[in-house]
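Hello Y.,

Per our agreement to keep a running log of every chain we model this quarter, I'm adding this entry. I've kept the format consistent with earlier entries: sequence first, then predicted structure.
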Amino acid sequence: MARSVIDEEKGCVTVINVFTVEPERAHELVSVLAKATDDVFSKLPGFISANFHISIDRTRVTNYAQWESEEQLDYAMRVHPGGIAEREAVQPIKISSAGAVYRVASVHRAASAAGHQLS
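Predicted structure for the entry above:
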C-alpha cells in the first residue's frame, strides 16, 4: 500500500486545494471529500493518499493529496464520473476554492525532537 511521504525524489504530484467555507459547514465538507476519497479516488490507479485539514477558525478546509502522475490525477478529477460527481457535491457547501498541482522541491526535518519541546 502506498503511503503519504513528502520526498523530493519520489516524483509524485501533489494537489493542494483550499476551500473557503462557512465555519458551521467545515466538517460537512470534510465528510463529503472523505467519502469521495474512500468510495472513488482510493480505488483509482495512481492514488497515493489524501489528507484533509480544517483551519482553527473553521473557515478553510485544505486537501493535500498525492498521485503517482499528473495524467492519473487529471483522469480522476476531470474524466472519471466519481471525480465529476465529487466536484458537483462540493459546490453547494464551499464559498470558493483555489487549487494547484505541485512537485516537492525541498524537504526539511527537525534535527532533534528533544530540542523542540515547549516548556
